[in-house]
Amino acid sequence: MRSVLPILTVVMAIVALWYGAAVMLNRQWTLDQAARAGQELTLTQVVADTMVQDRPKLPAPHQVGAELWKTTGDMVLQGRAFSKRSLIYHGWITLSATLLGFAIGTGAGILLAIGIVHNRAMDMSVMPWAIASQTIPILAIAPMIIVVLNSVGISGLIPKAIISAYLSFFPVVVGMVAGLRSPDRMQLDLLKTYSASRSQVFWKLRWPSSMPYLFTSLKVGMAASLVGAIVGELPTGAVRGLGARLLAGSYYGQTVQIWSALFAAAILAASLVGIIGLIQRVTLKRMGMAR
Amino acid sequence: MQTPIVKADHLDLVFQTNDGPVHALSDVSLEVMKGDFVSFIGPSGCGKTTFLRCVAALEHPTGGSLTVNGMTPDNARQERSYGYVFQAAGLYPWRTIARNIKLPLEIMGFSKAEQDKRVERVLDLVDLKGFGKKYPWQLSGGMQQRASIARALAFDADILLMDEPFGALDEIVRDHLNEQLLALWARTHKTCLFVTHSIPEAVYLSTKIVVMSPRPGRITDVIESPLPKERPLDIRDTPEFLEVAHRVREGLRAGHAYDD
Ligand SMILES: Nc1ncnc2c1ncn2[C@@H]1O[C@H](COP(=O)(O)OP(=O)(O)O)[C@@H](O)[C@H]1O
Ligand SMILES: [Mg+2]
Prior knowledge:
Chain A: Keywords: Cell membrane, Membrane, Transmembrane, Transmembrane helix, Transport. Chain A: Belongs to the binding-protein-dependent transport system permease family. Chain A: This is NitT/TauT family transport system permease protein. The complex is a heterodimer. Chain A is an all-alpha fold. Chain A has helices at about 5-35, 45-50, 60-70, 75, 85-120, 120-135, 140-150, 155-180, 185-195, 200-210, 210-235, 240-250, 255-285. Chain A has two domains: about 5-55; about 85-285, MetI-like fold. In chain A, helix 5 packs antiparallel against helix 6 (about 120-135) and helix 6 (about 120-135) crosses helix 8 (about 155-180). Chain B folds into two domains: about 5-80 and about 160-255, Rossmann fold (3-Layer(aba) Sandwich), CATH 3.40.50; about 90-155, no CATH class. Chain B has eight helices and nine strands. Chain B has helices spanning about 50-55, 75-80, 95-110, 110-125, 140-155, 170-190, 200-205, 240-255, and strands at about 5-15, 20-30, 35-40, 65-70, 80-85, 160-165, 190-195, 210-215, 220-225. A six-stranded mixed sheet of chain B has the order 5-6-7-3-8-9, with helices on both faces. Chain B has a three-stranded antiparallel sheet with strand order 2-1-4, covered by helices on one side. The radius of gyration of chain B is 18 Å and the shape is globular. The chains are: A mainly alpha, B alpha/beta. At the A-B interface, helix 9 and helix 10 of A face strand 5 and helix 3 of B. The complex binds adenosine-5'-diphosphate and magnesium ion (MG). Magnesium ion (MG) binds near residues 48 and 49 of chain B.
C-alpha cells in the first residue's frame, strides 16, 4: 500500500504533461481555424478548443478515456459487446492470436532450451540461429509469413499466432537455458554420487531450479506475443483486431481511435503480464523459492 | 588381515588447465580400514577435495591405483558404497527436509514405505526428529548441515565422505556438531573420510590424521591417534590431545617449509 502514493504521483505528472502536450500540439490548428474565420481567441478559448477537437494531433486524456468507454463498457451495457465497433471484440481477436502464439512460442522455447542444455551440437548450432532470427526486423518478416501462408490457404488466426510465436520463443529460450543451467556444480555432483540418470537430473533438479527464470521469460514472452499479434494485423489490411483498429485509425486520421486502441493494447499487456506475475508469486511461494 | 576400505597406491592426478598442468595429487598412498575416522588436513590447494572426489569417482586419477570397497571407484558408486556431504548443505528449497532426504531414495528406486521408514530413522540419527515437515529455510545452518548428513546416511552406504561439512559454521555450533558426529560414528560404525582445515577438529574426531601439503598435493604425515574412542569435548585440554595437535602442526609446518 505504501507504493500507492508514489504511483499516483507519477500518474498525475504524466496526465499533466499529456494535457500540456495536447495544448501545445493542437494549438496551431485552433489558431489556423480562428484566423481563417477572422476571429480573435482568448487564451482560455484556445486551451478549451485544443481539448475537444475531432482529429487532434494528440487527443487529450479524457477524450481517449471517453472513446475507450464508448467502445467497451458502453457497448456492454447496450448488449453489443461483440459488435464490430467494440474494442472488446477487436481485443478478443488480438488476444486469441496472442495466446495461441504465446503457447506455441513458449512450448518451442522450452523444448529448444532443453535441447541446448542436453546436447552439445544443439548448444553450438541453435543459439546463433535464434539470435539471428531476432535481428531481422519483424516488420519485414511479418508480411512474408502472412503472404506465404495465405497462398497455401491459411489465413486469420494462425499466421498471426506464428508471428507471435516467432517473437515470444526467444526470451523463453534465453531464460530457460540460463534457468536449466542454474544448478551449480556441487548440486550436479551430488546427483552424480547417486548415479542419477539425465532425466532424473532434469526432473528433480534442473526443471524446479529453472522456475524463477521461466516466469521471468514468460512475462517478456507474453508482451512480445502481443506485439507480434498486433504487427501481424497491420500488413494484411485486416479488418479485425487491435492492429486493424490502429491501421484504420491512421488511414482516416482518427487519432482518438488510434490512441484508444493503443491503450487497449497496453491494458491487455499489463493484465496478461500481471496474471503471470500472480501465478509466479503463488508458485514460487509454494516452492519455497519466493525472493 | 583385514582388507582396506579405501586403498590408494601411488595415486597421481594432474589437471590440464589453461595455465598449464596442475599437479593436484602426487604419489599419494593411503589405506583406510573399516570403521576408521580419517581426517585430511592441510592448507587450501593441497588436494584434499581432489582426493575425496577421486574416492567418489567424481575425478579420475591420471596415475596409480585406487580401490574403494575392493572395487574401482566407479563400481563402488554404482554399488552405493558412499554418501557424500559437501561444504554447503545444498538442500532443495522446494522440498521439505523429509523430501530432501528422500531425494537419493527416489533416485535409487526405494519403495514409498521404505522411504518413509528410512527418513524417520536417519532424522533420529542426526537429532532432527520432528523436523521432517519443515522447509530448509526454517532451519539454522547447523541443522541444515545435519539434514544433509542424514541425506547421505539414508541409503546405508558404509562410507561417509565429508568435505569441510562444518567449514561455514561458527565455532560453537561446530563443537556441538563434532560431538554429535562422533556419537553418530560410534552408533553406525561407518568409515569416515573427513576434510577439514581445523587442527582441533581433526584431532578431536579422528582415529587417523592425514597431513597434506600443496604444490604438488601430497601426504607429508599420517598420524594414528592414541586418543580413546570415547571422547568428551574437554578431552581437548588433555596432554595427549595437545601432543597430537602439536604433531599435526609440525607436519603442516614441514610441508610449508620451502614455501617461505
Ligand atoms: N577441476 C579442476 N581443474 C583444474 N584444477 C583443479 C580442479 N580442481 C582442483 N584443481 C586444482 O587442484 C589443486 C588442489 O585442489 P583441491 O583438491 O580443491 O584442494 P583443497 O581441497 O585441499 O583446498 C588446486 O591447485 C586446485 O586449483
Ligand atoms: Mg577443498
